[in-house]
Amino acid sequence: MLKSNLTMFFVLVFLLIGSCSASTPQEVSDAIVTPDTQQYITEVGSKSGNDTQFQVYNQSLQGFPTNGSSFVVISSGNASGVNGTPQNPWMVSLFVGSGNSSTTGQYSNRNNFSYDIANIYFKIKLPKGAKTISFDWRFATSEYITTQSFWDWARAVITYAGQTYNILLLPDGKAVDLNSSASYSNTVAGNFTPKDVKYAHVTGNNQTPGVYHVTFDVSQWAGEEIELDFWVADENDGVVDSALFIDNLHITVEENNTVNAAYVPMQKTGVPMGMLAVGVLTILGGVIYSKKQ
């Protein structure tokens, strides 16, 4: 009953304040993909969520940005205006998003119905010699971290040839949701480093502090196209929000095995071809000089 009343309240508040600034999928890509990786992005878009669920930030928050001057927040609510001081749970929810399990096929980690599902996807043509894909992240929420009813969740899923791989995992190897991230998150409105966002809980403030980093081996798909989807959602309700902070999406590529122009390969005898050429020219020069004499 309490959450039903809260839902109506937050909807009314949103209608009163109007829509906030938002970021397009392309702006999201420009903000988080490293410059030398942009060339491999063939398509970027969104399968679920309103524009206001995606926001590019050009300021320092929770250790972001980690590369360049900007990063992105993807939220099950309003992604703009998350900067501020930590607040008690249920206090950061001014917008009800869009998308649910029926429209996306995405359910929570314990297979429960989910709401306000936000998605950004990247189609990536991996270059030959591609080794890894990596990015930096943090999970934030305004839910009570101890609730047993609303385990909001986030994923980063790679798809290739119909097979999916969730690569967004906590240090203990578990998929990210409210319950699994509890031991890695700060206490309510405290233990923050730094205290610069309104969310009640943010990962990387307990046990293993700091921004988390994912590195995943993609060498088996080098030269092929893969898809990377970032997902964030509310479980069992569409009221109190959670978010994913993302930056530094990068693909490492094996160095080209080309011959350096400054390097002259050795012959089987061990004599550099360059030295051999110099020797031949010296001999010829000597012969020509002797003939002139």
Q: What characteristics describe this protein?
A:
293 residues, alpha+beta, Jelly Rolls, 2 domains, 6-stranded antiparallel beta sheet, 12 strands, 16% helix, globular, disordered N terminus, disordered C terminus
Task: Report on the architecture of this protein.
Helix content is 16%, strand content 28%. It has 4 helices and 12 strands, in the order ααβββαβββββββββα. It is globular.
Q: Could you provide a short overview of the structure?
A:
With 293 residues, the protein is of the alpha+beta class. It folds into two domains: 2-253, Galactose-binding domain-like (Jelly Rolls, Sandwich), CATH 2.60.120; 267-293. Helix content is 16%, strand content 28%.
Write the layout of secondary structure elements.
Elements: H1 2-17, H2 25-32, E1 41-45, E2 54-57, E3 71-75, H3 101-104, E4 114-125, E5 130-141, E6 153-160, E7 163-166, E8 176-177, E9 201-202, E10 212-217, E11 225-235, E12 242-253, H4 273-292
Antiparallel strand pairs: 1-4, 2-3, 3-12, 4-11, 5-9, 5-10, 5-12, 6-7, 6-8, 6-11
Question: What do the pLDDT scores average to?
Answer: 83
Overall structural class, as computed from helix and strand content, comes to alpha+beta
Number of strands: 12
Strand residue content: 25-35%
Helix content percent band: 10-25%
Provide the number of structural domains.
2
Oligomeric nature of the chains: single chain
Low-confidence stretches: 1-20, 257-293
Radius of gyration: 26 Å
Order of helices and strands: HHEEEHEEEEEEEEEH
Total of DSSP H or I helical runs spanning 4+ residues: 4
Architecture per CATH nomenclature, i.e. the level-2 architecture of the largest domain:
Sandwich
CATH class of the largest domain: Mainly Beta
Distance N terminus to C terminus? 112 Å
Quick one: CATH superfamily of the largest domain? Galactose-binding domain-like
